[in-house]
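Revision sheet: structure tokens.
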Amino acid sequence: MALKNIIGIDHAVVMVRDLDGAAENYRQLGFTLSPRGTHSAHMGTGNYTIMFDPDYMELLGVLVPTEHNAPARAFVERHGEGIERVAFTAVDSTEGAEEIRARGLTPIGPTDFERPVTLPNGTVSAAKFRTFMWPTAEAPGGVRIFACQHKTRETVWIPELMTHANAAKRISEVLIATPEPAKDAAHLARLIDREPKAEVDGAVTVTSGGDRADFAYLTLDQLGKRYPGVPLAGLSERGGAALVLVSGDLAATEKALSSAAVRSGAAIVVPPAKANGTLLAFIAG
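Predicted:
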């Protein structure tokens, strides 16, 4: 039976070494970024968000090493920059944590935290969350998963931040590289009570719930065949590899990305080396 308190992918977290540098890079790629957020001293991290509807991307960087961010630091040391974890939307994080506990998994959290937000009118408010994580060892394809309950959606989904020069509208797929697509897809499916589905190219997909983005597990070779002509330098054999983004206007996408992207079949693709370790594939919506 599907988890009642998890309704699909909420956001993808891209770990970066230089937070402000990564933010400027994504601005150059035509994204509108939120003002920089600073998390609590316990978390020791800062972020920029790239808001879509109904999901978003998060650029996350370690500002001060802490026990809490040790797994994130280890990820960067081991893999470099890229997709380190993916969040689901939690209707209620407390009840969601109990749901996975009832399945024999020990959740991390739930944990409440907040960060200050400067609104478009110049006033300062707060974005407040309650999150829980699946056990750190439960990371299908090397990507950790957690759930995020938004207690102040109005300070996260700000209309002025949701229009992008590159016409990005939402996440369609999160692509995770692995030598064993079927095994890692089955692992995720068990964790979120979904059914894996084999694709014709050998990839295996897992729906995340509702109308949200899907997960797709595939080998680097399969990824290369999906996006011929796109250099994959910077991607690990196992780990978060790409985000497929729906564009509202591919001509605007191509103009905004300019020389940073290449045409690959029906997609316009930014190679991982130009997007902080994450391949970005824009497709027509």
